[in-house]
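Quick one:
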Amino acid sequence: MGYPKNIYDEADKIMMQRRNKAKSELMHRQEKIYKELPEIQVMENQTASLSTQAIRCVISGKFDRNMLEQCKCQSLELQSKIKEMLVANGYDENALDENYYCEKCKDTGYIDGIMCDCMKILVKETACKTLSSMSSANDCSLDNFSLEYYPDVKMENSKISPRTKMSRIFEYCKNYVKNFNTNAHSILMQGATGLGKTHLSIAMAYEITKRGYGVIYCSAPEIMRQLEQEYFGKANSENKTNDTESALIECDLLIVDDLGTEYSNKYNQSAIYNIINSRINMNRPTIISTNLNATELNQLYGMRFVSRMIGEFDKLDFVGSDIRQIKSRS
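Output:
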């Protein structure tokens, strides 16, 4: 799962909160039980003392099997008495153990260096939550994408209407989500403002994220803002990192919205080309939406960049009238 670093950081933070919660709850139970049943605390201290004796025996080099066995038997006997006393007084026999959210990994998120299933679920949930927190994400889903805003009259020099064409694009997008894998085709969404490119790209991002894939959705200006902040902000640092660029290149699916609206300079053009080209070379799918036509893209990024996209991306031409203006009038 190729999620961006901030998703893993947030998941790690939640894991730490779970561990702290387990420790805090245990402390409160201990205080209550020790106050009500002080003899249990005495037995626990005795158990700890036996463990210390055993450790000292091993560390000292004076290995005494009989002494270790005696410590073990006494410790087990004390633990058994503690459980019996807990149950006799209405507590669970494990009331003095930490209650973890996940007993397998003890809320660390990893087992022998391998990500636990609970961590995988948490990372996916965190990614979905982060995507949903976007200002327009809650209003953009496949379920509420409506074709009624597209004219059902044949376009000039065409045998089909905008609604028919957009219906085909919508079906393509639904099938793309349903069958998505890390070897899926890349997509270039082109068309004027307000034709549904952002709506569909956000909806696709959310559905694919729910399936457990690592998706980064970001506008082109935001990508460049993060890259510039990271690169130039560390220009004088010996420990220069490229976390953002690596995440953009390595995620399962990269969705770049509004390509061409970022500030145009050689650094930005080179950075965008490097990210897209690297993903093409690594056979990783990318979805790009832009209001620019092929000529305008050529002028901004050069023929080399555009020819690579045209050769590698499935091209979806969005048509119709600005939906936002139609909605504002209704």
